Amino acid sequence: MKAELNLEPEIVLVTPAKVGGCPPNDCPPNAACRPNTDCYPNNCRPALGPCGPDTLPCYPNGKAPEPPRPFPRPPCYPG
Amino acid sequence: MSSEYEPEIKELLFSDKYVLKSGVLLVEGYNNCALYDINSGNVYSLNNSARNILTGKTDNSFFWEKLRDMNLCTTNTDKEKSMLNELTYVPSLQFAWFEIVSKACNENCLHCYGDFMPPTYRKGLDKFHSFDNSNLKKEEKLSFVQWKSQIKNVHDLGCETCQFIGDEPFLYRGEKGESVLDLAEYAKEIGFKFIEIFTNGTLLTREMINRIKDLGVNIAISLYSIEPEIHDRITRTRGSHKKTMEALEMLKEASIPTRVETVLMKQNETSAEETQRFIDKMGFSHKRLDVLRQNGRGDNLNLLPSNDSLLKHGVMASPNFSINKDMLARNLSNNSCLSGKIAITDNGDVLPCVFSRDQIVGNVLEKSLAEIVDGNRLIKVWQNTKDCVQVCKDCEYRYCCTDCRPSSLGTNQNVGEYLTAPYPKCAYNPYEGKWGKGYWKLDLEHKPIYINILEGGEEINES
């Protein structure tokens, strides 16, 4: 560890308020939910209805698939 | 690096009066550390002075009181229980790519990760290079029946989400003329909950759209630019933009759940944001711009976006983390992206990811899928945590961050290993505890160096 003498202890929140519970993902970084968007594990998308869990996108018809077993991180779909 | 430093995760740290609440965990980094609060989802950055207080090296009741006010510690020192023991995660198959057509596409994109192209082009190239393949085993392709069998095997392993992909999946033809929609229909019948077809859209007809609608299948489409010339220049296929746009119109009209994705490269960076606005306006979903991965034909410096674009879209330039119990359990023992995924190619090869072309972990024509999924080669990839990744292993955010092994290997061609190469999409320097404007990669001696991207300027080695 680097020596860090006489510094005041600091604690800084690094979770943006709007994306609490919306983990970042590889594709792409710096996700931040905008107003009227749904929090999706790796990004934000227009609010179309209830988000599907984890790897699943939001459904325009509002039908959310069943929750998956242990939390899968979102896939990095090729584009 | 100091020999005294050992990456660690700690809980229930205490002073004479306070104890960290259950679920508030201290993750050590080389210079700083982080508190993960899985109760609220928040992540906090702490400097070394704060770390010394939490680990009992120095005393500071004011700081503990501050933590109390932030709901991170309590005076109920006897009631808080260990949460680390509950953070167990058993990896299982969650997502499968069915790459039903390999080495055949009706477009010839500049950046294709799989080096896919129309077969006639490939034949010409093989002739040009005088490639002698007479000694190679004739490549066997999965038949329609074998594909159905593999789709069933994937579902039997508990997986309920899949994507059909190619090259171009609508080029697929079974022995009796079956199409990707026949395979998708079968997947639906046996219980897949989410099915997506990733296509360039150019072969979609109204009849297919109607069937897609009836099947309840999702579509993903690549649109490289709203500008026809730019899109066609990237696909190297004249008229491809027009056909893709016609497909989008039909998908919109039929209200088929569609996401439209854009890979960002030098050739489309001037119109990429406008393209995303267009996609929004059409009512389709999309992720953020996906910066080119240097895999396959994408490994070409002429395709790399400008430094400004890289800074804006390609690296995490400021902290943006959150956490929950499931995510932490997964990331402590598994790779945040790869775990639970496989890709099966049309010759039966199983890959951990479609972008990881040379990481074959088995072949379903030689071994059962269950054996491959339980096999050491795949498990080693799934369980490759950030603790194995150069630079990331010394970062306090390593269990709330993400990863991309193909990107890491792509950026570190010839010097990096698939499982350990530094992640190139993060601007944090854990050795100084600072966020910069750059990313990590390996030098020719395989040592990590920080590449500082100056806006509109050059790359400078800061290490």
Secondary structure elements and pairings:
The complex is a heterodimer of chains A (79) and B (463).
Chain A: E1 11-13, E2 37-40, E3 43-46
Chain B: E1 9-11, E2 19-20, E3 24-28, E4 33-37, E5 42-46, H1 48-54, H2 61-69, E6 73-74, E7 95-99, H3 119-128, H4 144-156, E8 161-165, H5 180-190, E9 194-199, H6 206-215, E10 218-222, H7 228-235, H8 240-253, E11 258-261, E12 263-264, H9 272-282, E13 290-291, H10 307-314, H11 325-333, E14 341-344, E15 349-351, E16 362-363, H12 369-374, H13 376-382, H14 405-411, E17 428-429, E18 434-435, E19 438-442, E20 448-453, E21 459-461
Parallel strand pairs in B: 7-8, 7-14, 8-9, 9-10, 10-11, 12-13
Antiparallel strand pairs in B: 1-3, 2-6, 3-4, 4-5, 14-15, 15-16, 17-18, 19-20, 20-21
Question: Your description of this structure?
Answer:
The complex is a heterodimer of chains A (79) and B (463). Chain A has a domain of 27 residues. Helix content of chain A is 0%, strand content 14%. With 79 residues, chain A is an all-beta fold. Chain A starts with 10 loop residues before the first strand and ends in a 33-residue tail after the last strand. Chain A is elongated and about 60 Å long. Chain B is α/β, with parallel strands linked by helices. Helices cover 28% and strands 17% of the residues of chain B. Chain B contains 14 helices and 21 strands. In chain B, helix 9 links the parallel strand 12 and strand 13. The longest helix of chain B is centred in the middle third of the chain and has 14 residues. About 3% of the residues of chain B have low confidence. The chains are: A mainly beta (79), B alpha/beta (463). Chains A and B meet through strand 1 and strand 3 of A and strand 5, helix 1, helix 2, strand 8 and strand 10 of B.
